[in-house]
Automatic annotation (TrEMBL):
PANTHER family: (RAPE) HYPOTHETICAL PROTEIN (PTHR42743:SF17), AMINO-ACID AMINOTRANSFERASE (PTHR42743). Transmembrane segments: none annotated. CDD domains: D-AAT_like (cd01558). It comes from the Eukaryota. Belongs to the class-IV pyridoxal-phosphate-dependent aminotransferase family. This is Uncharacterized protein. The lineage of its organism: Eukaryota, Viridiplantae, Streptophyta, Embryophyta, Tracheophyta. Signal peptide: none annotated. Gene3D superfamilies: 3.30.470.10, D-amino Acid Aminotransferase, subunit A, domain 2 (3.20.10.10).
Amino acid sequence: MQDINCLPLYNTLRRHVKGKSSLLASPLAPPSLPVPENAKLFAWVGDEILPREMAKVSVFDSVVQGGDSVWEGLRIYKGKVFKLEEHLDRLFDSAKALAFNNVPTREEVKAAIFKTLITNGMFDNTHIRLSLTRGKKVTSGMSPAFNRYGCTLIVLAEWKPPVYDNDNGIVLVTATTRRNSPTNLDSKIHHNNLLNNILAKVQSFATESCDHVLVESNNANVDDAIMLDKDGFVSETNATNLFMVKNGVVLTPHVDYCLPGITRATVMELVVKENFILEERNISLSEFHTSDEVWTTGTMGELSPVVKIDGRVIGEGEVGPVTRKLQSAYKKLTDDSGVPIPTYQKL
Ligand SMILES: Cc1ncc(COP(=O)(O)O)c(C=O)c1O
């Protein structure tokens, strides 16, 4: 094999890439961003913080090779990271379940989170996508034995208001794709191998081609898709946990198939605090279709009322009283609690 320092073409290319690379340029016109301010953000990758366009992982990274990575979504409210310790607990548990080696310490992950937020001046209205991959491999392949560099930490913070219409409600359809079972890929591991969810999501949204023709005929053009477990009980949506109310009782599915969401746990505590009866049990789809109220929970979207499922109007087709009460209890909790970001000064 040749010594790479004796390869003139390789060295020319390397210099070109180090300068201004057009190798990754898209053939499409630059799209507009949902939040234009995010064009100038800095992201943490590995052990450094870089401008958005320069923040990249290696083609040898495990997340590229096999979606071999774990992640958390966190939200920032009024200078504080909401449920930071709970998210870090789940991140480290997920990494342990997948037998990651050379995992950064809790203090290192926290330092990277705070540094990213402070560099971006993000102290509110911010969502963090925190990923920990098994790391870069010495050669492509599945085996964790090729992972000799340690894990790759990515902290991607963006300006992001809650993503659903929490005032008027959202619409769901039921996906044909079933939720993973613990016999194949345990939902308690919060991993980046998201194709099970993405296949369900594909059924919920409509893709438009350049000439505005719907290109996926079975797509419903709604907000998200409900996923059932192998027995046909409701598990969760492709991105959130689910709750329903019938005759004053609040119900939510077991976490056998769904992610044990941190917002789900928080809302379950609020349900009890607000003196509603709470039941965690198998729930069939027809119970959801005929319920009085339904809402989804997740860090990204908070509590989102559901007004229609598979064409059935839920309750009166508007945000119900139990949902409203819990939305306001949740808002109070996010305002009042969380881990303060160092250096943040209240105005
Ligand atoms: C499939 C799925 N369900 C539920 C949730 C909500 O979890 P949390 O409340 O911890 O944000 C998420 C968020 O990552 C998710 O990906």
